[in-house]
Design a protein that fits this description.
Structural class: alpha+beta
Oligomer: single chain
Shape: elongated
Strand content: 15-25%
Largest sheet: 4 strands, antiparallel
Number of strands: 6
Distance between the termini: 58 Å
Strand order of the largest sheet: 4-5-3-6
Number of domains: 2
């Protein structure tokens, strides 16, 4: 058997230490994710860490550190595909980005242990757990702060619902009123909703506005003949 000729006790024990370290560190990361009922929990993070460690260790054993670096690049690419599988889009919201990033970090931990850098892997694990736990109060505090439209960067739209026969004039009124308030229009979309209403949407060039000013413009637009409804809204750029 070739195994009897290739087996070496000390390199084997080195592999055991690398995989065991990846298992323990992946468990620490995954336990926090499992506690918070995330899509990728305990087992997923452990398997990612152990798998990354196994591939890197195999490259080290067969061809040395140069080949291990090449294996690490493939591990990073492969984890990118795995992370994409846990990212879900629900309407305007995207979920799973933090879970995907955690899987990416678990792979980095496994790569460290597979390259016999167990101390570095433990340090990275501490940072990952701290990022997922200690930063949560800060995130919640920031989320509770009201958004100041004057300093936030977003896409702003002003919408009018008008009678179809008033659409051409309403389009001109919309552009004129916004430009008079020093909010130039980048584009205007006209969408006909049957024979009863036409929606006109003006997309502003500005990435920051004063809410009171836009409210005043919208209020003036509501009073124009043929205008059934007027409003404005914003959406983040990221």
């Amino acid at each position: 058997m070739r195994f009897l000729h290739t087996f070496q006790l000390l390199p084997f024990l080195d592999t055991v230490a690398s995989l065991l370290a990846a298992f323990v560190l992946g468990t620490l990361i995954g336990a926090e994710r499992q506690y918070r009922q995330r899509t990728a929990g305990l087992r997923t993070n452990v398997l990612v860490a152990v798998g990354a460690a196994a591939f890197v260790d195999l490259g080290m054993r067969l061809a040395g550190s140069v080949e291990a670096v090449r294996v690490i690049s493939y591990v990073v690419s492969g984890i990118g595909f795995l992370g994409a599988g846990v990212i879900m889009k629900e309407g305007m919201n995207v979920r799973g980005l933090n879970t995907a990033a955690t899987l990416w970090c678990s792979a980095a931990v496994g790569a460290c242990t597979g390259a016999d850098m167990i101390a570095e892997g433990a340090l990275l694990t501490a940072f990952v757990i701290a990022g997922n736990t200690l930063l949560r109060p800060l995130v919640n505090a920031i989320n509770r702060v009201p958004i100041d439209e004057r300093v936030s960067e977003a896409t702003y739209e002003v919408r009018l619902s008008v009678a179809p026969e008033s659409a051409p004039a309403a389009r001109e009124w919309l552009v004129d009123h916004l430009e008079a308030a020093n909010y130039p229009v980048g584009d205007v979309d006209v969408d006909e909703h049957g024979e009863t209403a036409t929606q006109i949407v003006a997309i502003l060039v500005s990435t920051a506005v004063v809410a009171a000013e836009l409210d005043a413009v919208v209020e003036r637009l509501r009073r124009l003949p043929g205008v059934m409804h007027a409003t404005w809204e914003s959406s983040t750029r990221d």
